[in-house]
Amino acid sequence: MMAEDRLDAASVLPRLTTRWLARSYHWLDETDSTNRVALDLGRSGAAHGTTVVAEAQRAGRGRLGRSFFSPAYRNLYTSIVLRHPTQGTRAGTLVFAAAIAVAEAVEAELDALGKPHDALEIKWPNDVLLGGLKTSGILVETTGTEPGRFSVLGIGVNLNVEREEFPQEFRARATSLAAFLGAPVDRVGFAARLYGKLENQLERHERGGFGALRAAFEERFRMIGRRVRVSSGPASAVSDEREGVVLGIAGDGALLLRREDGGEERVLAGDVTIAKEPPS
């Protein structure tokens, strides 16, 4: 593996524009999970913005107990330690900041090739899609008690993996930037750009919570008017599922649904899939 293909500190740090994010940078050739490493660093007192990057993960984790496919030297797998005084009340909406930052970094790749942004969208709460297919995974884990409470924000972005390489269970709903763009992605450039976008969005979130991010999120949110099904996780029973038409996003980031009985429902967490329209 050539040095320029690695996401190590020598490659990434010279291209950073951040002030505090990723300035403490831990590179691993392989690990079980970058979130696990970052959680350990956080418990040991790692500073706000400490960043972990791995070239491969043996047990990458996604939301709702899912795994995240993590082949070596193809994508970006990173986790960041976040310590802010207000984070205890706002940790639940950190995923929106991350989704916007990933979307902005992807849009820069589209711009570089002169492609429009209309194929990109954010599916609530944090899935960045290209052509309706998932490109990334985002996971926030918060631990500890005040004043030592902190969060770890994990982000995985499919950059250069081919669609046929995905496990069968992911292939129908996932893609990579390279597969969509038809050209390889500069992983180092993408990582440095993402960290810059993420620092900006995290600072906005720190100042104003989801309200400060709402316009940027809604600009990329295309689910209004669509019928969806929401479940609490991949193993949910049918009785745990809810279905309705998306009305929009509430001021605190909740998904707003119109139920069959005409009532309105707020969804704070869950897995969203597009539901089939009922027969007319």
In short:
The protein has about 280 residues and is α+β, with helices and mostly antiparallel strands.
Count of domains: 2
Low-confidence segments, ≥5 residues, pLDDT <50?
235-239
Strand content: 15-25%
Portion of residues within helices: 25-40%
Task: Considering the chains and any ligands shown, give keywords for the structure.
alpha+beta, BirA Bifunctional Protein, domain 2, five-stranded mixed β-sheet, 8 helices, 26% helix
List the helices and strands and how they pair.
Layout: H1 9-12, E1 25-28, H2 34-43, E2 51-54, E3 76-82, H3 87-90, H4 94-112, E4 120-123, E5 127-130, E6 133-134, E7 136-143, E8 150-157, H5 168-171, H6 177-181, H7 187-208, H8 214-219, E9 227-231, E10 242-249, E11 255-258, E12 264-267, E13 271-274
Parallel strand pairs: 1-2
Antiparallel strand pairs: 2-3, 3-8, 4-5, 5-6, 7-8, 9-10, 9-13, 10-11, 11-12
Helix pairs in contact: 4-7
What does this structure look like?
The structure is a single chain. With 280 residues, this protein is α+β, with helices and mostly antiparallel strands. It folds into 2 domains: 3-219, Bira Bifunctional Protein, Domain 2 (BirA Bifunctional Protein, domain 2, 2-Layer Sandwich); 227-274, SH3 type barrels, CATH 2.30.30.100. Helices cover 26% and strands 24% of the residues. It has helices spanning 9-12, 34-43, 87-90, 94-112, 168-171, 177-181, 187-208, 214-219; strands spanning 25-28, 51-54, 76-82, 120-123, 127-130, 133-134, 136-143, 150-157, 227-231, 242-249, 255-258, 264-267, 271-274. A 5-stranded mixed β-sheet has the order 1-2-3-8-7, sandwiched between helices. It has a 5-stranded antiparallel β-sheet with strand order 12-11-10-9-13, with no helix packed on it. Strands 4-5-6 form a 3-stranded antiparallel β-sheet, with helices on one face. Strand 7 (136-143) and strand 8 form a beta hairpin. The radius of gyration is 18 Å and the shape is globular.
